[in-house]
From TrEMBL:
Organism: Actinomadura algeriensis
Domain Ketoreductase: 14-199
Superkingdom of origin organism: Bacteria
Signal peptide extent: none
SMART domains listed in its UniProt record: PKS_KR
Protein name: NAD(P)-dependent dehydrogenase (Short-subunit alcohol dehydrogenase family)
Amino acid sequence: MAAEPALAAPLADRVVVVSGVGPGLGRALALRCAAAGADLVLAARNEERLAEVAAEVEKLGRRAVAVPTDIRDEAACVRLADTAVETFGRVDGLVNNAFKTPPLEDLATVDLDAVRAGFETNVLAALHLTRLLTPALADRDGSVVMINSAVLRHSRRTYGAYKMAKSALLSMAQSLATELGPRGVRVNTVAPGYIWAPNLKWYFKQIARERDVPTRTIYEEAAATTDLGRLPEPDEIADTVMFLLSPLARAVTGQCLDVNCGEWHH
């Protein structure tokens, strides 16, 4: 029987690469992994934000390397993967969090070039980065987590291009789990619904202004659609990702775990 993993620091002394480090979920992913004992390699286009999050990781007593990266750029991704391995000598986990919102228009009229651009960031870039890091991950029985979306669970109008991209990302993750499993690499998916983070707060504020009601009213209306009566915080999504990266999920691969406070059941 496999040895039981330590619970106090489930990512103790592991190295995790996180793409798409922004002020909401990306930052939470970095900090929760650091709090669980991991060192971080942080990737995003915004150098100032990367530096801020790296400093926060270091305040938690872990190491962080910020690598400015446009994951649509092949050379930039190669540099990211090389930097991770050269700096730490290994990679134990990868979180594909970078995302570009496809045009929210009907599929009957949406610009196809814009749809292709969404696939480049949301699907193909994640595949490319995973492929680059697969040798290092295989050396460590590593784990990959794809950040997906609750758009998988509905077919609301104007979300067609979004759902197409995220459905492709899910299928890709499942296929990679089958392909990489014999090499010891696990591949899983986390699908959040609403995340009560800066982007959603701004969006709800705009809706509230248009309707001339308090922002809290918009929040409460959205929260009422969930079983728990609230919206998930970034840390709660990040904790689920941290679990999948850790030995606590050592027998979990090819799965999609929804984190939405019960808005959708799957």
